[in-house]
Amino acid sequence: MAGSRRKLLVPGVEEYLESVKYEIAQEFGINLGAQTVSRSNGSVGGEITKRLVAQAQSDLTNQNR
Questions:
Q1: Residue 63 CA from chain centroid, whole number
Q2: What spatial distance separates the first Cα and last Cα of the chain, rounded to whole Å?
Q3: Which family does it belong to (predicted)?
Q4: Total domains present in the chain
């Protein structure tokens, strides 16, 4: 996130997301890199978002109990 003006709310989140990205890519059989097609990269990003939303929903549900 070099040069970004966005403030991170959770310290260390960049390292976590990076590890999740490669974990999902491995699950999908995708080798990330400059030669990877955009569709493959997008599917990994979409899965990251899907999992983060599911985790947030779970956390909110557990907080309301």
A1: 23
A2: 36
A3: Belongs to the alpha/beta-type SASP family.
A4: 1
Q: What is the pLDDT of residues 40-65, one digit of tens each?
A: 889 999 999 999 999 999 999 988 77
**Residue-number span of the structural domain to which 33 is assigned:** 13-64
pTM over 0.85: no
CB 18 within 8 A of CB 1: no
The Cα-based distances of 1 to 4, 13, 14, 56, 65 in angstroms read 6, 11, 8, 22, 36
- C-alpha closest to that of 47 among 12, 15, 11, 23: 23
pLDDT band at 3 (very low <50, low <70, confident <90, very high): low
